[in-house]
Specification:
Family: Belongs to the MICOS complex subunit Mic10 family.
Structural class: mainly alpha
Pfam family, one: DUF543
Mean pLDDT: 79
Low-confidence stretches: none
Number of strands: 0
Strand content: under 5%
Protein name: MICOS complex subunit Mic10
Largest sheet: none
Keywords: Membrane, Mitochondrion, Mitochondrion inner membrane, Transmembrane, Transmembrane helix
Radius of gyration: 26 Å
Shape: flat
Subcellular location: Mitochondrion inner membrane
Order of helices and strands: HHHH
Helix content: 55-70%
Length: about 110
């Protein structure tokens, strides 16, 4: 059985990916919950808002772990392609003269 494991490249080893994701999820959940508890202790007086800050921290931890795990399983890069210049919106300075030349709106009651 040890021979088969050596033949499998790291990018196809699903067990290692699950182990890494579970470890990452537990660590980020705990650390973010502790950060939320500490922040709630410093900033809020009500127990409800303190629990809300803990829940927010836990949600941030799980969300960031989910993002990282999806990157691990998909193997995609974290650098998205830059947007093309043709997709960019027009400059604000180009749009302002058009607005100044427009006739006043008829919706205003005098």
């Amino acid at each position: 059985m040890a021979e088969n494991k050596d033949l499998l490249p790291a990018k196809y080893d699903v067990n290692a990916k699950w182990d890494a994701c579970l470890d990452l999820t537990v660590r980020r959940f705990v650390y973010s919950s502790l950060a939320g508890a500490f922040g709630g202790l410093l900033l809020f007086r009500s127990p409800v808002t303190r629990w809300a800050s803990i829940a927010f921290g836990a949600g941030v931890g799980i969300g960031s772990a989910y993002t990282e795990c999806s990157r691990i399983f998909d193997g995609s890069t974290s650098n998205p392609a830059p947007p093309k210049l043709a997709d960019a919106p027009p400059k604000l300075a180009d749009a302002l003269p058009k607005l100044a030349d427009a006739p006043p709106s008829q919706d205003v009651q005098e």
